[in-house]
Amino acid sequence: MQQQTDAVKADALRMKEAAGRAAVDALVRSGMKLGLGTGSTAVHAIRRVGELMSRGILKDISAFATSFQAEIECENGGIPFYPLNSREMSAGLDLTIDGADEVDPQNYLIKGGGGALLIEKLAAYASASYAITVDESKLVAHLGMGFPVPVEVVPEARVQAGKALEKLGAAVALREALRKAGPVITEHGNIILDIRFASPPDPAALETDLNRIPGVVENGYFTRIRPVVYIARSNGTIEVRN
Ligand code: 5RP
Question: How high does pLDDT run on average in the chain?
Fold first, then answer.
């Protein structure tokens, strides 16, 4: 049983790595300004960029890291990274590569499983092109039926925003930290309310409507930029879906 579980984990890891590397190899060119995403799939894209830079295949890359995790990966890989407001980045990004929690048939996404949705969305919407790297387990018919939609909320709005989300028909759960008592606190000092609907809502409408609730900073629906999706299949192939 344990051996089976280990094999499944190893397969998942292989697929994540394959998706990350495939997107970098196909899309990243010297001189690009890159947005670099967060999570256990996006790290493989960051590592591949670092590897190609160290071999002299990619030159003059500069990056915007979407989280502490991405910053550390950039540091480890020797990838120079800058704030989005900096002179280096202020003209916008050429390409952002990230992971996702769910991808629907229109390539709409749920993101934020790693709590970095706010800055991930900034990078995505500041990019000329956007690539998502996933293993096939992330493909769904309807968003939000398996993975909840994260909503980042200022701490002062925990109760009122929670009530407003319930009025929209959502079941609301405060995201709890794993190795700390109490809630997850995002890199911007906010909390995350994970919401679920009983039947599939309209993700494009909700992306706008959720942000109208006072105290909501951002939500995990990504529908206004259509990514190219690199899907690692369990048979070892990579499918590219536009
Ligand atoms: C972090 C994210 C991640 O991209 C998403 O959670 C997917 O992560 P993983 O590749 O580890 O499954 O949105 O906020």
Answer: 96
CA 130 to chain centre: 11
Among candidates 164, 170, 157, which has minimal Cα distance to 215?
A: 157
Q: Which of 236, 219, 239 is nearest to 228 (CA)?
A: 239
- Does 144 fall in a domain? no
CA of 43 to the centre of ligand 1 (A): 10
pLDDT tens digits, 195-212: 999 999 999 999 999 999
The residue range of the domain holding 135 is 2-139+224-241
Q: Helices (DSSP H) in 100-145: which residue ranges? A: 117-125
Model confidence at 2, pLDDT cuts 50, 70, 90, reads low
Q: Is there a single domain that holds both residue 25 and residue 81?
A: yes
| Residue 42: other Cβ atoms inside 10 A | 30
Cα 97 to ligand 1 centre (Å)? 11
Residue 70: is its pLDDT beyond 70? Answer: yes
Query: Which tokens go with 212?
Result: 């109208």
Task: Among 15, 16, 21, 40, name the best residue to mutate to test ligand 1's pocket (greatest count of ligand atoms within 8 A of Cβ).
Answer: 40
Q: Given this model, what pLDDT does residue 185 score? A: 98
Q: Is the dihedral of CA 137, 143, 145, 149 positive or negative?
A: positive
Of 120, 152, 207, 218, which is the active-site residue? 120
Same domain for 175 and 72: no
The pocket around ligand 1, CB under 6 angstroms, is made up of: 37-42, 98-101, 111-117, 120
Burial of 193 from C-beta contacts in 10 A (0-12 / 13-18 / 19+): buried
Give dist(CA 146, CA 169) in Å, integer: 16
